[in-house]
Model the fold of this input.
Amino acid sequence: IFMVLSLLSIVYGALRCNILSIRIKYDDYDVRVKPAAYLCIFLWRSFEIATRVIVLVLFGSVLRIWVFLVVLLNFLGFCLYPWILFWLSKSPFPENIEKELSRVGTTIVLCLLTFLYAGINMFCWSAVHVELSDPDLISKSQNWYRMTVYYIVRLMENAFLLLMWYIYRTDFYLYVCAPMLVLQLLIGYCMGMFFMLVFYQFCHPCKKLFSSSITEAFLSC
Done:
């Protein structure tokens, strides 16, 4: 019961972040989110987060040491990614976050922001993307290429972790139909991707402002 309540609260938080990011990106327009959009986001985030957590738990139950390496690589990768983009952009160091902050304080705030960004992306696609070269510290453009790469790599990673669990599973899972469980989790993650596509294709409140539909964008990617 507590796990279900925790999952629902996290999914609700992800849903609110999605709506907030839409309002931030399109603050010049009157954004009206329909009930169908709320439903698609809820199902998208539910399948995505739940399957990701279950995959990590299963993998960690048989390879306890290696799960720390997986989590660490994910965390460091997403944490360093905004800093690498900032370094490649050769933009000046952000100074307008808070006037009372020194350069060291600003650096600490930016590090905490990237830590939060990395923690979210370990489990689901972040609704708001950190861009240190932007004065608002967030990217307001819709990058279909990053989203495509993220979901393809994440699906491959989940499949690999499930394969490792299937190979090294213990007698504790003797009465569990392992192939069916692996198939259900992979289908569950694909269902999350499906509802994400439905949201951007049909239910996004500002879909008319997109330069191309999400199916065309994914095919081009």
